[in-house]
């Protein structure tokens, strides 16, 4: 077994707020005001989207560097969506400042479908919880 990521969260005095730490990095998590929080940080589903889009950006840049391709500046956005039937999905969008050719556009779409976080989200994942 290899641990590829680690994080912990500690409660803060305000309802729903917590301080997340991972390695030497810290950030605040909270719920929006509409859910009783103070909206001081990313909500849990925001963090899922953030993990996906950061992995997408890094993977595309690594691919471009490896292949000697200039992608130029771009951004990746994601929305976590749900409907009344209980279905959930993520809508991911990649916006490039430079126009890409049709072949490179298809390659970018293929790469996006194979990023590590995409693969993790698409397959079942066991979560083991223990009290310590």
TrEMBL record:
Task: Output the InterPro entries linked to this UniProt entry.
Answer: KH_dom-like_a/b (IPR015946), OsmC/Ohr_fam (IPR003718), OsmC/Ohrsf (IPR036102)
Q: Domain of life, per the record?
A: Bacteria
Name the UniProt record assigns to this protein = Osmotically inducible protein C
The species is Acinetobacter pragensis
